[in-house]
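Quiz preparation item.
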């Protein structure tokens, strides 16, 4: 039941209360969602225990209600969301129902969100016999800036706890224990609350150890997300305290976001060069906090003072995914490198980062499959040491907006890319990149997607990148002004039998369309050609491709930014019986189209940036409209 939003303040709360009262649904109702209701109170039927089948209930943006109905009386309710009640200050005893009843007998998911005035949530701390939340497994408290108090004490089944944007909510001092907690997300709460929740999880461990019960019977925390905790400088982690180690045996995921004072994850001792290797490894494991020993997924996001990652990062022997986003003070990664288990590495928005890998001495032991680097303007090389190369296991390589990147590797004579598993290469907006390293011909049997865009100083692409790329399905080369010609082998591309989409600038093909054999690409379904960098007189006033040179398999054709183009050849659409999308943009001088030759299969026809042509295609009025009227999607702008 949703009310529309009126801006003229004409709504009458009393009328809305009467309407909602009369809209009482059937008693067998299972789900009820009320949104935008502006009555001052709820009718008595909401919360009536006669609704014995109701399992899912939400009250959303009921902005004039200062109290909640007795929802605890609904015997089958499993999911409850209270959101956007802007004048609600207290969740009192009336929320639970009549005295003596067992409230919320089956409730599993409870959410309080976006309530700016909520100050107190009554949880029966003074009456231990009433336990309304013994089955709750998910608890979400979000954007309640005035809420103070403690968590309910009866949460034995709580698996997932998320508290966000509640700066006054002090969890400390709560008598709660959380024996089943596996996932914690704490964002925008006091630092003491984060510490208290972790301590509450370990309270049960103390009891279990003292009772000599095996900890294997306990659930353990698997995921921890920390965000917007302003005073956090180091994580509240423990190293060898037996009472908390048992809580973190299954810990796998850690996310840290928006902590402006965080400088390092945890304190570390200095290296001692005179220690033996075995002794060093043993000390590394002992010095590593128990919460980190089995971590598989680590994400650090928007921590502006983070200067370094742990020196022991290479000893995170279960780490498979590492994401570092928007950490502008991070200048380098540990010289000891990454663990051999790491398969995905993404680094975005690290403005001070100069080198991704230092001296990577064990590159052949790496299992890295995905490398994604974006928005790192100080980065000059991916690998700065001589003799190092990209991991041979690499499947995806993506590099974007690294303005100072000069080369992928510090290349020595004869050095080549040896990544036989490489499937995707994407390099965009790297202004200083002049060349790609050589690639062994047999390496590219698996190459499926190649994107080179906005690399205005890229001068050449080695022959090896295309020599055996028989599985290449998507090729996109644009905005590379100094790339006057592609490798010689690509001037005849008929061996690219798997190519499905091709997007190119005219200058990068040296105006040799008729030699390129486009018509032989029997799998090509999408073709986008740009003349953005062409000079006057090079292309001419008529589109240079004869119809027979376009593959008959085309479904999508885009022609854009030919500044001197005046007309399209009458043979352009010959044999294009499958063409469904024709988009033409940025061709300022284009004034005629062979509309009588347009294929009947067209579903979408767009003309952008040509005034003369736009008028001719105007719906119902233009000269060309009778030939376009059958096309479902015609856009002229």
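Solution:
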């Amino acid at each position: 039941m949703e009310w529309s939003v009126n801006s003229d303040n004409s709504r009458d709360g009393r009328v809305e209360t009467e309407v909602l009262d009369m809209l009482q649904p059937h008693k067998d109702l299972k789900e009820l969602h009320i949104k935008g209701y502006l009555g001052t109170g709820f009718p008595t039927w909401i919360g009536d225990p006669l609704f014995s089948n109701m399992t899912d209930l939400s009250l959303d943006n009921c902005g004039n209600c200062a109290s909640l109905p007795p929802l605890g009386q609904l015997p089958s309710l499993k999911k409850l969301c209270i959101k956007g009640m802007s004048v609600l200050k207290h969740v009192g005893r009336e929320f639970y129902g009549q005295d003596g009843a067992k409230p919320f007998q089956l409730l599993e998911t409870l959410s309080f969100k976006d309530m700016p005035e909520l100050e107190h949530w009554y949880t029966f701390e003074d009456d231990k016999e009433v336990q309304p939340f013994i089955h709750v497994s998910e608890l979400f408290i979000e954007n309640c800036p005035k809420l103070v108090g403690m968590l309910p004490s009866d949460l034995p089944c709580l698996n997932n706890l998320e508290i966000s944007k509640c700066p006054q909510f002090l969890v400390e001092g709560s008598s709660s224990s959380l024996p089943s907690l596996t996932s914690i997300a704490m964002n925008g709460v006091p630092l003491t609350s984060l510490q208290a929740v972790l301590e509450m999880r370990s309270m049960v461990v103390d009891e279990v150890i003292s009772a000599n019960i095996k900890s294997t019977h306990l659930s353990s925390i698997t995921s921890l997300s920390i965000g917007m905790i302003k005073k956090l400088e180091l994580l509240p982690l423990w190293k060898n305290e037996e009472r908390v180690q048992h809580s973190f045996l299954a810990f796998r995921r850690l996310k840290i976001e928006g902590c402006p004072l965080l400088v390092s994850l945890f304190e570390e001792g200095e290296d001692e060069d005179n220690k033996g290797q075995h002794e060093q490894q043993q000390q590394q494991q002992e010095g590593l906090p128990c919460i980190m020993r089995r971590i598989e997924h680590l994400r650090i996001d928007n921590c502006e003072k983070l200067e370094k990652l742990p020196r022991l990062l290479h000893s995170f022997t279960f780490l498979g995914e590492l994401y570092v986003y928007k950490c502008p003070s991070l200048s380098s990664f540990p010289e000891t490198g990454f663990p051999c288990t790491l398969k995905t590495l993404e680094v975005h928005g690290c403005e001070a980062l100069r080198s991704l890998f230092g001296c990577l001495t064990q590159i052949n032991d790496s299992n890295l499959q995905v490398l994604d680097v974006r928005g790192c303007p100080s980065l000059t090389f991916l690998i700065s040491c001589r003799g190092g190369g990209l991991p041979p296991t690499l499947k995806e390589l993506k590099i974007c907006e690294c303005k100072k990147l000069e080369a992928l590797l510090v290349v020595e004579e004869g050095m080549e890319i040896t990544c036989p598993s490489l499937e995707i290469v994407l390099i965009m907006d790297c202004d200083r990149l002049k060349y790609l390293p050589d690639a062994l011909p047999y390496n590219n049997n698996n190459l499926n997607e190649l994107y080179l865009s906005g690399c205005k100083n890229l001068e050449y692409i080695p022959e090896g990148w295309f020599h055996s790329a028989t599985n290449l399905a998507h090729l996109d080369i644009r905005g590379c002004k100094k790339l006057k010609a592609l490798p010689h082998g690509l001037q005849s591309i008929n061996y690219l039998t798997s190519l499905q989409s091709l997007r190119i600038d005219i200058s990068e093909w040296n105006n040799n369309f008729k030699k390129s054999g486009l018509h032989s690409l029997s799998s090509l379904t999408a073709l986008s050609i740009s003349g953005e960098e062409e000079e006057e007189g090079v292309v001419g006033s008529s589109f240079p491709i004869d119809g027979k040179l376009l593959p008959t398999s085309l479904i999508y054709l885009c022609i854009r930014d030919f500044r001197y183009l005046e007309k399209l050849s009458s043979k352009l659409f010959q044999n294009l019986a499958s063409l469904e999308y024709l988009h033409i943009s940025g061709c300022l001088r284009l004034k005629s189209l062979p509309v009588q030759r347009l294929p009947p299969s067209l579903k979408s026809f767009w003309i952008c940036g040509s005034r003369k042509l736009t008028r001719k295609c105007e719906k119902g009025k233009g000269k060309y409209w009778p030939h376009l009227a059958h096309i479902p999607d015609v856009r002229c702008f």
